[in-house]
Every structure is written in C-alpha cells, then in structure tokens.
Amino acid sequence: MISRRLPTILPDMTFEESLEVTKIHSIAGILSAHTPLISQRPFRHPHHTISGISLVGGGKIPKPGEISLAHFGVLYFDELPEFNKNTLETLRGPLEDKEITISRVNASITYPCNFMFIASMNPCPCGYYGSKEKPCSCTPDQIKKYIGKISGPLLDRIDLHIEVSPVKFDNFDNSKNTTDSKTIKERVNSARKIQQERYKNIGIFSNSELTPKLIEKYCILDTESKKILNAAFSSLGLSARAYSRILKVARTIADLDNSENIKVHHLTEAIQYRSLDRKYWGN
Ligand SMILES: [Zn+2]
Fold first, then answer.
1. Where are the domains of the chain?
2. What is the per-residue pLDDT for 175?
C-alpha cells in the first residue's frame, strides 16, 4: 500500500521527462490513445513470474522492458524472493548504469531505465521471523534458502531497508496524526530544489547521482559522525558501496531537514536504514 502511494510524493515530472517517458511507452506500443503525453510518473509492478526479456527488454525487434517502462518512475516487486534469482540478478547492471543495451546480431539498442526500485518481502517463508506477535515456524535452513534468493550485491544497490511491523486494525484511523501526500510532496520538492541549486554547475540533479569523488566533496562528516560511521561499517560488515549509499542518504536527510551540514542524527538515521545488513548478514 505504501509503495503504491509513493508516486504521489515524487517531484512533478518536467516536460522533458514527460516526453522521454512517452516515447518509451510509444515504442513499446502501450501508449493509450487518450494520453498523448504521459505526465504522471510511471508505477510498474510486474508479477514474480516475469521473464528476463520482459523485465530488461529484448525480443526479435528489441522492445523496452519493464525497467525502461518504469523510467523516471517506480518499479515495484512484491514478494521479492518469489522472483527468479537470475531475473533478479539482471537488475544489478541497470540499477547502476540507469540504461540498458540490448544486443542483437545486426544492431544494438540502448534504452534509458532511470527508475526507483522498491521491493517488499516477508522476513521468512511463514512471515513471523523476529515478530513479537507469533513465533516463527521456519527452520534456519528454510530462512537461509528464502533470503538467499536475494544476493548481497543486489541488496547493496538498495538504499533503504525498512522493517514494517503489522498494523493493528484499531490503528487504521485516518483522522489522527497523518500527513497527506501534498504536504510530503512539498518537502520533497524543496529538498530537490536545494540539490539542484547545489549541483547546478556540475551537471547532476540529485544526491543519488553523486560519484565517489563528489561524495567526498559534498558529504562531509564531522569527527564524531566519522567515528560512528566507521564503527557501523565494521560491526555491520558493510561494503564500500553500502558505505557511500549511507553518505548519500544522510545528505538527503540533511536536505529534508534544511540543514547545510550532515549532522550526527542525519547520519545515524541513514545507518538505521541498513537493517537487512544487520538482520541477516551482520552480527
Ligand atoms: Zn518463519
């Protein structure tokens, strides 16, 4: 439910983005006659039985796959471990490169695929591993096999891991303590603006595009934060890739907080979002 609501808080698409998305959908032959120009960020949610070709693109006349149809929008996988392991691995390159080249005997075609990847999963086959409500009935081997479908390198490429506990029926009360999408979107837009301003002379738009060199320049930590990050790095056994992701996320949290510098609480929040490293691969 949360994933489906996500496009409502993403920044509005620019006209150039709309054109690019419309072109891809037109090439795929799925553009509806009623929408000459797509102005909403796409939300694609393929079934777990999806083939590699449908996901990344291909075929005799190479068509864009789901990753390209999700360009500038969201690609959502429900029940991540149900997907074919090899299919999941094909995501690694596109997540990094934001484009995909489909090679054929006579030619190769490159499609853009700059999407936000969201996936949901249970903690184990029965769904209760780590739950306070009910004991988990899975054997350690079953859990290992289930989680093992998601490789460390794929997990490394996901910025935020968040554990969500079951919501009690009584808590489904819309009237209290809720922030609506419009308010959240305003915060997102203002953080985006800060980033566009900061990077206006270097040809990138957002923190997610920071290269390791740029991270050194724009994600500066004070001495205390450095100590915390180093400690987290060794205790969670993080990869270099996870390390730079934490810094980029901390930079974004600081931007949402309208703070020029990354402070300790921005960094610790970003470290919190690596819960899967901790749960399954950490100590
Ligand atoms: Zn279980």
1. 2-121, 181-281
2. 62
